[in-house]
Specification:
The chain is of the alpha/beta class. It contains eight helices and 14 strands. α2 runs antiparallel to α3, α3 crosses α4 and α7 packs antiparallel against α8.
C-alpha cells in the first residue's frame, strides 16, 4: 500500500536524522506537558481568572492544594527528563534524578508567594503607567505585557536553579502568544511594565533595574551573535527609573543606560548613557 511506503520512509528518516523523543528513553521534556504545567502555575498565581471553576472561600484551600500537587507531579516528571543527561554525566542513579527534580519543583511552589508579590508590583506599575488601565483585574485579564512578565518570573526561577530546556519552552510559548520575547536568563527588577509589548526582545544577559518601562518594538540585544561569546555578558544594563519608547534598539554588554534616562522612539544606542539623559534621533 502507498501508506506503508510513506510510513517506512518516515521511520527511515527518524533513524537517519534523529529528532524523535521516545517516552521510554526520557530524552527531553514534552512541550505540551510543560505548557500544561505552566498554565496551572498561572492559574495558581491568578486564581479564579484563568479557568472556569467554582472558587469560593470554602473550597479555596482544597482547590489550591490539589493544583499545587498536580503541578509538583507534572513538573517533577518533566524536570527529570530535562536533567537526566546531567545525572548521567555525574554518574548519578535515576532515583537521584527523581529526588533532584521533585526538590526543584517543590522549591518553585515555595517561591509562588514571592513571585506573586513581584507580579503585583508589576501590575501596579502598569496601573500607574497606563492611563487606559482601569484596574488590576483588567490588567490580569487583558494585558499581554503582564502575562509575559509573569511567565518570565516563573521561568527565571527555574533557570537560576539550573533547570535546562524547560524555562525556554515556557518563554517561547508566551513569546508565540504575546509577541514578547524575554529570555529566562535575563535579570529584571521590580515594578517592570511593558506597554503594548509586541516585538519586545530582551536578551539572555540583560540586566534591568526597578521601575523600568518599555514600549512595543524595543530590542535589548547583543552587538554580536558569535557562539564563542555565549558565556560573556552580551546584552545591555538598564538602570532604575528608565523609560524606553517604541522601536528603540539598545545593544551591547558594556552598554549601560543610566538611571532616570529616557530613550526616544526608533533610536539606536550602542554606547552607555549617563543618568537622567534624554536620547532622541537627531
Amino acid at each position: 500500500m502507498i501508506t506503508d511506503n510513506i510510513v517506512s520512509n518516515i521511520l527511515d528518516s527518524y533513524e537517519k536524522l534523529g529528532g524523535i523523543n521516545l517516552s521510554n528513553a526520557q530524552n527531553f521534556p514534552n512541550q505540551q506537558n510543560v505548557v500544561d504545567v505552566l498554565l496551572d502555575i498561572l492559574t495558581l498565581i491568578f486564581p479564579g481568572f484563568r479557568t472556569v471553576e467554582q472558587l469560593d472561600a470554602d473550597n479555596l484551600r482544597y482547590v489550591t492544594g490539589a493544583r499545587v500537587n498536580k503541578i509538583i507531579n507534572g513538573l517533577t516528571g518533566e524536570i527529570k527528563k530535562a536533567t537526566l543527561y546531567l545525572c548521567k554525566q555525574r554518574g548519578l542513579e535515576q532515583s537521584a534524578c527523581t529526588r533532584l527534580a521533585e526538590k526543584t519543583a517543590v522549591a518553585l511552589m515555595e517561591e509562588i508567594p514571592e513571585i506573586r508579590r513581584k507580579v503585583t508590583l508589576d501590575m501596579n506599575a502598569a496601573l500607574r503607567g497606563d492611563p487606559a488601565a482601569g484596574s488590576t483585574e483588567e490588567i490580569i485579564l487583558s494585558y499581554p505585557g503582564i502575562e509575559a512578565i509573569t511567565v518570565y518570573r516563573v521561568a527565571h526561577e527555574l533557570h537560576i536553579n539550573g533547570v535546562p530546556i524547560i524555562p525556554r519552552i515556557m518563554s517561547e510559548y508566551i513569546h508565540g502568544k504575546t509577541g514578547i520575547d524575554i529570555h529566562p536568563g535575563a535579570t529584571i527588577g521590580e515594578s517592570f511594565f511593558i506597554d503594548h509589548g509586541t516585538g519586545v526582545v530582551i536578551g539572555e544577559t540583560t540586566i534591568i533595574g526597578n521601575n523600568v518601562k518599555l514600549y512595543q518594538g524595543v530590542t535589548l540585544g547583543a552587538l554580536s551573535v558569535r557562539k564563542e561569546q555565549r558565556c560573556y555578558k552580551r546584552h545591555p544594563t538598564i538602570e532604575d527609573d528608565v523609560t524606553i519608547y517604541s522601536g528603540a534598539t539598545i545593544l551591547g554588554g558594556d552598554t549601560i543606560i543610566g538611571r532616570g534616562s529616557i530613550i526616544g522612539g526608533n533610536t539606536w544606542v550602542t554606547e552607555s548613557v549617563k543618568p537622567r539623559s534624554i536620547i532622541t534621533i537627531s
